[in-house]
Amino acid sequence: MIDRATVTAVLDTVIDPKSGKGLVQAGLVQGLVVENGRAGFVVEVPSADTALYAPVRDQAEAALKAIEGMERVSVILTAETVVKPQRRTASLSPQAVDQNRPKAPVPTDRPAHVKRVLAVASGKGGVGKSTVSVNLAVALAKRGLSVGILDADVYGPSMPTMLGISGKPAYEDGQMVPHEAHGLKAMSVGLLTAGNDAMVWRGPMASQAITQMLTQTRWGTAEKPLDVLVVDLPPGTGDVQLTLIQKTPLDGAVIVSTPQEVALADARRAHTLFEKVGVPTLGLIENMSGDVFGRGGAEAEAARLGVAYLGDLPLSASVREGGDAGVPVTVAVPFGEAAERFDAVAAAMIEALSL
Ligand SMILES: Nc1ncnc2c1ncn2[C@@H]1O[C@H](COP(=O)(O)OP(=O)(O)OP(=O)(O)O)[C@@H](O)[C@H]1O
What we know:
Elements: H1 4-11, E1 30-35, E2 38-46, H2 50-65, E3 72-80, H3 86-90, H4 94-98, E4 114-121, H5 129-142, E5 147-151, H6 159-163, E6 170-172, E7 175-177, E8 179-181, E9 184-188, H7 189-192, H8 203-215, E10 226-232, H9 239-247, E11 252-257, H10 261-276, E12 281-289, H11 297-305, E13 309-314, H12 317-325, H13 329-332, H14 337-352
Parallel strand pairs: 2-3, 4-10, 4-11, 5-9, 5-10, 11-12, 12-13
Antiparallel strand pairs: 1-2, 6-7, 8-9
Helix pairs in contact: 5-14, 8-9, 10-11
């Protein structure tokens, strides 16, 4: 087993050309993940310095690969185009906090005229994250909020199908105009790419596309701001997700899991990822609860993690059919059981996000 201490010690043998310190000491190692013979982190530098740091990234990668038992290494070099929100800077390691980075009280990459940004995440694919995102967004809209939904799932953008939208977004005054469906303003990575292009995206490219959709879409106006933007993240807890959540100004996250133990272990990892970047996990939702996978696993897990349990959504044909037909179940069966469950989650989110 390779532990974190070994990895950070090795990274400190690689010298930051600017400060002359080791990379960890210099606070350049962000979001370090060490697990099962794999290690990855992000080095974020001012755009002007990317050429200077490209060889440093290569050195760091080579040094980590030389550790016995290391199977996969991923070091992502990103250009810092915006100043991070202060709360996230404060959640970094003491070394990172020590350095003289410029800090601003208001992050400049926050989408304009959007009050809150809520992420929906899962540690594992196929657990119903997109289904939950869409129906939660509808439930929030039914409670009178103006709601947007951003499909950031670069691996398999499903929002166009689930909401029944298609076609590239229009541009007006240099901004993308979101599609409107079922009372939601919607934007999907699937609308910006042709066919399966989205599948081959890598971290930095994906995060650039997401940042663009976040900040260059006309979600709201000064007169009519958007109350909440629901962001459907790509499933998993790898580099792509890490880069995205570091770049996206999130006010909170909801984690979706099935009752299976394996999915729950992944949910735990997702929670840890959000903890690392200082984004509060507002709750855990159990999806596809019922006979096949059992029931109640997520509730126990939420208690273990110390996060709110937001309830379960049973495995049901109407939920699946709604998704396939482009009419979410909360719209198709407005007073059904699923709609009721989502309404309860919406109420909890309104409270947690002080909306
Ligand atoms: N409670 C449910 N009952 C029945 N079917 C469901 C339920 N939740 C999701 N599904 C179905 O399961 C499939 C996967 O759901 P969805 O696309 O929402 O998952 P995901 O976690 O977003 O997947 P991905 O890994 O692609 O991001 C879809 O066909 C969806 O309709």
